[in-house]
Write a structure and sequence with these properties.
Elements lengths: L1 H13 L1 H32 L1 H6 L3 E4 L14 H8 L4 E15 L5 E9 L9 E5 L9 E5 L15 E4 L2 E10 L10 E5 H7 L9 E6 L5 H10 L3 E4 H14 L2 H31 L1 H9 L4 H37 L9 H27 L3 H6 L1
Parallel strand pairs: 3-8, 5-7
Antiparallel strand pairs: 1-9, 1-10, 2-3, 2-6, 2-9, 4-7, 5-8, 6-7
Length: 378
């Protein structure tokens, strides 16, 4: 068997032009598939950045909320009612909204303002510079050092700006686990300052953040909140809800899926046609092997080996090329959202396996129909 596979390898690589064409087709198909799905995974990850960064175990919201940026205010009684639910360790309000700030240069910049509970500051970010207690100072805000930080003109502690004719002062610079999706810088402040500085409707509580006493209490808390007419979701459920919104209720998921399928079809067609041409050009050699006693199963193993070797090599090159370009893109464009996950790699690998199977099937059918006397007669 080893001799048969070695012969199959030599037949494959000796025809360098066909071998290169096969590799190029599969490599770029894999590259496009992983690139598209990685971009989608990065977008979904960034879309739930606020949920990830705050880290609350349970989020209470209006049932109409689909994304963390699509906030709908809730009346104050919801906070009191949630605090009275059995199994709730504590519950605090959170403000999340957009605003327009005037920077030192006189330009305006859109920002996302997160208002933390004044008493506990639950969900506060990890500070790199400054002290967290300074958030209680007059006009105090904390900037987030992420990919969009430079849009605030690289503020440092003491930097001033205007927000709806209110003075704002940067008292700290923090880091978070995930940057935002839409290229908008984030500022943290206290809840009361946020609702004071930013025009709001009658209800100002965007979310109620809940810490349960135990995991067993989560289900009962969700039922009690539902009875109030509102929705309680765990952190993971809220992230899934946001992801499903972008997948199924926007054109983003459909467009990415179509591009991935097109990449797969292109790779399949190129590799299938090229591999079939390779078989036709080497049909005499396969016929000669059959004439000297090679079994049909051995010829099948040869073709399977050739298709598998080419597909796996192309897969590795495609993954490497995608990783290289994503790394370079993130160096040059810090807010680039692509993210390679195990799902992306597995999905691309599954499609490559299908490409290898189809290519093998086409070649096997042609080789098994060979009759040795036809080769020698020609």
């Amino acid at each position: 068997m080893w001799g048969i596979l070695k012969l199959a390898y030599k037949l494959l690589v000796n025809d360098r032009s066909k071998f290169a064409a096969l590799l190029v087709g599969i490599t770029f198909a894999v590259f496009l598939m992983i690139q598209m799905t990685s971009l989608f995974a990065g977008v979904l990850d960034r879309s739930a950045s606020t949920v990830t960064n705050i880290g609350a175990k349970i989020w209470v919201m209006d049932p109409a909320v689909n994304t963390v940026a699509n906030t709908i205010g809730m009346p104050d009684f919801v906070l009191d009612a949630v605090r009275s639910i059995k199994g709730v360790k504590f519950a605090v309000p959170l403000y999340s909204g957009g605003a327009l700030v005037k920077l030192r240069s006189g330009t305006f910049q859109s920002v996302t303002v997160i208002g933390l509970d004044d008493t506990s500051l639950f969900g506060r970010p990890q500070l790199l510079r400054g002290k967290i207690d300074d958030i209680y100072a007059e006009n105090a805000f904390i900037g987030v050092l992420d990919a969009d930080f430079n849009k605030l003109e690289k503020p440092d502690i003491g930097t001033e700006f205007e927000l709806n004719d209110h003075k704002g002062v940067i008292v700290g610079v923090a880091e978070v686990a995930s940057s935002g999706l839409f290229g908008v810088p984030t500022l943290y402040t206290t809840y009361n300052r946020a609702i004071q500085y930013i025009p709001s409707p009658r209800f100002t509580i965007s979310y109620v953040l809940v810490e349960p006493k135990s995991i067993a209490d989560v289900a009962s808390i969700e039922r009690e909140v539902k009875a109030l007419g509102y929705l309680a979701l765990t952190k993971e459920e809220f992230i899934d809800r946001i992801s499903n919104f972008y997948k199924y209720q926007t054109g983003l998921g459909t467009n990415i899926l179509l591009m991935t399928l097109i990449s797969f079809i292109v790779g399949l067609s190129i590799s299938g046609q090229t591999f079939y041409t390779f078989i036709l050009e080497n049909i005499e050699k396969f016929g000669a092997l059959k004439a000297i006693g090679a079994k049909g199963s051995e010829l099948v193993y040869m073709i399977l080996f050739q298709a598998s070797f080419t597909a796996l090599t192309g897969y590795g090159l495609g993954v490497g090329l995608c990783v290289l370009l994503i790394t370079l893109a993130k160096i040059r464009v810090p807010d680039y959202a692509a993210k390679i996950t195990y799902f992306n790699l597995s999905a691309a690998f599954g499609m490559v396996v299908i490409i290898a199977v189809v290519s093998s099937y086409v070649g096997i059918r042609r080789v098994l129909r060979i009759e040795p006397f036809d080769i020698f007669r020609g």
